[in-house]
Amino acid sequence: MNEDSAAYRLTGMVLPSGWTVLERIEMSPGKTGCACSVAYLVEGPDGEQGFLKAIDYAAALASDDPPLEIALLTNRYNAERDLLKHCGDRKLGRVVRALDAGTTRVPGAQPEAVSYLIFERADGDARDAVSTFDEADHAPMLRLAHHAAVGVSQLHSISCAHQDLKPSNLLVWNLAALAEAKLGDLGSAFLTGRPAPQDDERVPGDPGYAAPEQLYDGDNKLPPAHRRIAADMFMFGGLVCFLLTTVPYNGLLQMYLDRSFWWTQWEGTFAEVLPALVDAHGMAVRRLEETLHACVAADTAGVIRQLCHPDPMVRGDPKARRFGMNPFDLTRFVSQLNLIYRRASFESRASA
Q: Considering 87, 120, 153, which residue would you say is the last residue of a domain?
């Protein structure tokens, strides 16, 4: 942390577009953002509050290869800014909106320049939501899962893969009622036709939530665009698992996987470890079905079974695959989660 950097000295400033920087937000581990960004609460001229992410160029300048790190940081910022505008132009309602972007200077700072993005401000994220989780009522969490499914589907509809779907990147409004959720942090995203620095990374997002073929460096024989969409499906299924159990799917999978097969230990090929992963997947899904409320257990476990299959050549919609259609189309899963949510909501009201 370099407190002399402009990224750390924005409090009290009025930005060129009229936003006032109110206070710096200390980010807890796992929150949206990265080591090269600093978060602030901001207020617009009309009183609207937002979340600002300031890019800390000082962190890049202090690296072993400053020119390379500055270029990567700038390119990632530009890619995220442009993708957010692309999503906004297409009115993707379940993806967080960027309210402003720009660069300003802080006289006397080292360096003086700082670039920033301002987003609509949520009340929390999926991790905050599960802290209010009532195990007897799955309906609110299933509503958030459905909102997340719509968001992922909207991104896929514009040939974009999020690539970092995890609890801290599912933003929630009105935490008391768990009323609404949107996807946030597109800093690791892939968009067809718009190259970004992370496109060549084997695991563009957080490894703790990544798909097995990414973790084990598996050749899944899919075209690059489908490879990223297939990984998104796995991570989305893991997010649904987290919302309903507070355990990420990879954590559940490891419970049934011998330690020698963990991706941090394994030295063999993906093909060699895949049978063990498939067996662990079967046990993990059965555990899920036993854990969830009876009215939604079978259907929800079925969704996660298809979304989180360790083999990307089996993952997704089996009916679509049988009929030669795109198995990575989330449309059916969006509808299924909506139906499961409505059933859980009805059961909740009936038992109240």
A: 120
DSSP class of residue 130 equals H
pLDDT by 10s per residue, the chain, length 352:
667 889 999 999 999 999 999 999 987 655 544 568 899 999 999 999 999 999 998 888 888 899 998 998 899 999 999 999 999 999 999 999 999 999 999 999 988 899 999 999 999 999 999 988 777 788 999 999 999 999 999 999 999 999 999 999 999 998 887 789 999 999 999 998 888 888 888 899 999 999 999 999 987 778 877 899 999 999 999 999 999 999 999 999 999 999 999 999 999 999 999 999 999 999 999 999 999 989 999 999 999 999 999 999 999 999 999 999 999 999 999 999 999 999 999 887 777 6
Shared domain for 61 and 136, answered yes or no, is no
Give the CA angle between residues 42, 117, 193 to the nearest 5°: 160
Domain extent for 22: 6-120
Based on the structure, what is the number of domains in the chain? 2
Q: Which helix (H) or strand (E) element contains residue 120?
A: strand 113-120
- Global pTM reads 0.93
What does residue 105 show for φ and ψ, rounded to 5 degrees? Answer: -125, 145
CA angle, 242 as apex, 238 and 243 as ends, to 5°?
120
Cβ atoms of residues 244 and 141 within 8 Å: yes
Q: Does residue 1 form part of some domain? A: no
